[in-house]
Design a protein that fits this description.
The protein has 8 helices and 8 strands. By secondary structure, it is α/β, with parallel strands linked by helices. A 4-stranded parallel β-sheet has the order 5-3-7-8, with helices on both faces. A two-stranded antiparallel sheet has the order 1-6. Strands 2-4 form a two-stranded parallel ribbon. Helix 3 (93-105) packs across helix 8 (190-203). It is globular, with a radius of gyration of 16 Å. The chain starts with 14 loop residues before the first helix and ends with a helix. This is Uracil-DNA glycosylase. It comes from Pandoraea apista. InterPro entries: Uracil-DNA_glycosylase-like_sf (IPR036895).
Length: 206
């Protein structure tokens, strides 16, 4: 097995790459977030909570991209085995779009941490208002683990529900919004979808 991680679209379809990333979860920049995820698992053992990707910035990140909800290819227990990570390298179209949009926006990977306003996977892409409310409140517990955070990008409608909490908990943060990089968003709002890289590039200017 090679030692260098493979940072390209859909590389987490590879068990070798998943194993490589899992070995990185104890590295100093990601270990506090690994512990956070393991705490969520203890609190809600019936829900899957996936790891933060150690190729991202971890606790050193100054940008949080908060998306909607983990998809099936984050899950290592599904019919089609996923990665166990919240990652732009997952084997699905939305993750691939995130990868390309980040590149188009010129955002250095180590500046970023990816998460979801609904943090857990419960075997369905559907969600309800109660899940969003609980997820928004959980963001409050994540913020102290990101001491260098300066910018939050709320990606998609459910993530935008976190805006009031962020303004109250961290009034110093710069908060931006964008459409979600999913195929569904492209079908219904192609113009908003195409604007995503430009909006992310604007958010990255500090």
């Amino acid at each position: 097995m090679t030692t260098e991680p493979n940072d390209a679209p859909r590389t987490l379809r590879s068990l070798e790459e998943i194993t490589r990333r899992r070995a990185m979860l104890v590295e100093p920049h990601i270990a506090p977030l690994t512990s956070y995820v393991e705490g969520l698992r203890r609190q809600e053992p019936e829900t899957e909570f996936q790891y933060f990707d150690p190729l991202d910035g971890g606790v050193e990140a100054d940008m949080l991209f908060l998306l909607e909800k983990p998809g099936p290819m984050t899950s290592p227990t599904g019919k089609k085995v996923g990665s166990g990570f919240i990652s732009r390298n997952n084997d699905d179209p939305t993750a691939e779009n995130v990868f390309h949009f980040m590149r188009s926006a010129g955002i250095e990977r180590k500046r970023v941490v990816l998460w979801n306003v609904i943090p857990g996977w419960n075997a369905t892409i559907k969600y309800n208002a109660a899940e969003i409310r609980r997820g928004v409140q959980e963001v409050r517990h994540l913020l102290p683990l990101l001491p260098k955070l300066r910018t939050v990008v709320l990606v998609g409608g459910p993530a935008r529900r976190a805006h009031p909490l962020l303004q109250t908990a961290r009034p110093d943060l710069l908060i931006h919004t964008s459409a979600h990089p999913s195929a569904q968003c492209f079908r219904f709002n192609p113009e908003q979808w195409r604007e995503i890289p430009k909006l992310w590039e604007t958010a990255a200017r500090v």
